[in-house]
Design brief:
16 strands, about 15% helix, alpha+beta
Length: about 300
């Protein structure tokens, strides 16, 4: 892997290729130090980046001052903060959370489910990201971040091959649609911005080439100072199909049975035949249902 540029927290407000605007503080936690803007106008300006190259990668260490998870959404919330549900980590717009007007942006959104995304086009995920033509976009659904816990976010891109990936703590959490051809991308602005007051930003590193999964894993292991075991277990369970803990809850004597459903194969076969012979129910069953029924034992075995 070839390094393009690295920015690290320090007291000075200006270095080559980077400038801090507004008031900020340095926070030291678990062996790592980071910037945290204390005003809405506090931003980190990066004038030296390579996101307009055909391939590359960017790695950002950060932690949030609040838990990033599913949150209530009401239209009246926008009266005082139009972009209250966007937590941009890095973007080419100085108004960081104005996601739709950013061409390049890595953003966390607390929609009806929490979503982490990265894009190379101006517009919203829906419908602009998919219509009339697919755009350079990758999203990770149900992605949450614990309060005051350091995370390493890595975004890799290869524009000619339509390949965009997001990693969290060395674990692949999202990749672009491998079957989509010709994903359109747009050129980002000359300056990138960070500084959401909710986030504390540590090392920001750009690489010249698209990092492989093994290289991303090695970077995390090399740079990680301290990580909560439960965080890694959850990431592996949700996105890597590892460390999975089966659902083990059972009702105790305080629970009273109100409704009991039978899902055995005999009852299912009876209902299938009824749907097949009853004209009013025939629309409910297809050949696919019968094909799936033939594989019910295999499906049940894989889910147990």
């Amino acid at each position: 892997m070839e390094l393009f540029e690295r920015f690290q927290p320090q007291e000075t407000k200006r270095t080559e290729g980077m400038e801090l605007q507004g008031k900020y503080r340095l926070i030291k936690k678990d062996g790592r130090i980071g910037w945290n803007g204390i005003q809405k106008k506090s931003v980190i300006e990066l004038k030296h980046h390579n996101v307009n190259d055909m391939e590359g990668a960017v790695s950002i260490w950060f932690f949030s001052l609040e838990e990033l998870c599913t949150t209530l959404r009401y239209d009246n919330f926008r009266m005082h903060n139009q972009f209250y549900d966007n937590y941009a980590i890095i973007a080419d717009q100085k108004e960081l959370c104005d996601y739709d007007n950013s061409t390049f942006c890595i953003n966390w959104n607390c929609g009806w489910y929490p979503q982490l995304s990265a894009k190379f086009f101006k517009g919203a995920i829906y419908p602009d990201g998919y219509a009339p033509v697919p755009k350079a976009l990758v999203t990770a659904g149900h992605c949450t971040f614990d309060k005051e816990e350091w995370y390493q976010l890595t975004f890799t891109w290869n524009k000619p091959k339509n390949r965009y990936k997001i990693y969290v703590n060395g674990i692949l959490v999202a990749c672009s649609d491998i079957y989509t051809k010709g994903m359109e991308w747009e050129e980002a602005g000359q300056t990138l911005y960070l500084g959401n007051p909710t986030l504390c930003i540590s090392d920001i590193t750009f690489y010249r080439d698209e990092l492989k999964i093994e290289e991303v894993e090695q970077l995390f292991e090399k740079e990680c100072c301290q990580v909560k075991e439960s965080v890694q277990k959850e990431l592996k369970a949700v996105y890597a199909d590892q460390e999975y803990v089966p659902f083990q809850w059972k009702p105790d004597e305080q629970w009273e049975t109100k409704l009991k459903l039978s899902l055995d194969k005999e009852e299912q076969a009876k209902r299938f035949v009824e749907r097949q012979t009853n004209p009013e129910k025939q629309w409910k069953i297809t050949e696919e249902d019968w094909r799936n029924r033939e594989n019910v034992d295999r499906y049940a075995g894989s889910s147990s």
